[in-house]
Write a structure and sequence with these properties.
Elements lengths: L20 H10 L2 E5 L8 H11 L3 E5 L5 E2 L2 E2 L13 E4 L6 H10 L4 E4 L6 H9 L3 E4 L3 H8 L3 E2 L2 E2 L13
Parallel strand pairs: 1-2, 1-5, 5-6, 6-7
Antiparallel strand pairs: 3-4, 8-9
Helix pairs in contact: 3-4
């Protein structure tokens, strides 16, 4: 049986243990400051949209991108180690191979959680973060999970606050 953050015999990671709905909700409801590693200044990139969404929903977003000086009206830092304030969640939009170093930095700044976006899967990085006391969420989108658990979506899709059986369009 594989342990959280380790690979089983065929090299696959047990992702289910990194996707516990109760832990995800706890992180979402307690976090206030989110550092987004790999946040792009390009409005068409997923990282930009996630950062924009999180800012609109009251989170303090701190860009971490050494190629940019400012993103979303916020100063961008070259690394997590350069951020001068407390970070609750480190959200990662980088290649999986970069995760171990990002996890080391997240532990060094005493972040509360390491959140790895879709496809950012690395057992070594997860283990480093867990060993350092961080909660790890992997292969989940922070924006989608926020929308799911904080009221912007429900089990049928977007929460319009209307209950209707009326069909629109062609029938």
């Amino acid at each position: 049986m594989s342990d959280r953050g380790t690979s089983d015999g065929d090299g696959a990671i047990d992702l289910a243990r990194y996707q516990d709905p109760l832990i995800i909700q706890q992180v979402l409801h307690t976090a206030r400051t989110i550092a987004i590693v790999g946040l792009s200044a390009n409005e068409l990139r997923a990282s930009y949209f996630v950062g924009y969404y999180l800012k609109r929903h009251g989170y303090r977003v701190i860009p971490v991108n050494p190629r940019e000086s400012e993103i979303l009206g916020e100063k961008s830092y070259p690394s997590l180690l350069d951020i001068p304030e407390k970070v609750d969640v480190v959200d990662v939009f980088r290649a999986p191979a970069a995760l171990p170093e990002i996890a080391r930095q997240a532990v060094a700044i005493h972040a509360g959680a390491l959140w790895c976006q879709f496809g950012v899967i690395n057992a070594e990085g997860a283990q480093i973060a867990e060993d350092g006391g961080l909660v790890v969420i992997m292969d989940r989108c922070l924006k989608i999970e926020h929308a799911r658990y904080v009221g912007r979506m429900h089990w049928l899709g977007f929460n319009t606050t209307r209950v209707t059986s009326v069909r629109s369009g062609l029938q």
